[in-house]
Amino acid sequence: MAATMFVLPGQELDPSSLPSHPTLPLKLGPGLRHIPPNTITPTVAGQLCTNKRKNAVWVEFNGGRYVPTAGDLVIATIQKSSVDVFYASLSDYTSNATLPQLSFEGVTKKTRPQLAQGALVYARVTLANKHMDPELECVSSSTGKSEGLGPLTGGMIFNVSLGMSRRLMLPNPADQGGLVLLDEIGGQGVSFEIAVGRNGKVWVDSKSLKGTLAIGKAIQDTDEKALTIDEQAKLAKKVAREV
Question: Among candidates 82, 125, 123, which has minimal Cα distance to 104?
């Protein structure tokens, strides 16, 4: 990932600050908009980040409201269902998203999943614009495989800032986001599973309720208190002792 720079809403970005790729189109992430023909401006204040390998650029910011973007991985809460779709909440500030009941790996009309109100799913946003409610999928449209998406059973959900979600989802959180907590907890021999949504949701599951609560609380503390790498390492040791 390239070095970051601070940007302001409406600022016209210099082309030299954007990544380029011989074959991939430029992918705009959260916090940016394209003004034809070739102007790109931030919509929020924050750190401009780039990924040269994916030819992607976005703005890291700690906004209070999640705005769905196509391609985002999210944790959604089922609210209700109809004949063909589930309606799922992404946050308190967005309309319910729709999730087709056949948008799961290997399902048919006879084997579609039975998801009750409150059930959690790990899903990908496939459609997001201001004129329509978001649409989700729990299966890759190109491979037909779940690729880690689908219902989340057991565990607990924890709310974090949008910035923390993005840090957790970085390819290398330690080097790129200064986030070592989970590596340190795992290094202490604690087993757990985690799923992170761009919508500020983190699902954690471990061998015990006490462990799940301790890990989730540690993630929230790291986020809210802006813990340093050394402080995260100390917190990880404390979590390992408690579980």
Answer: 123
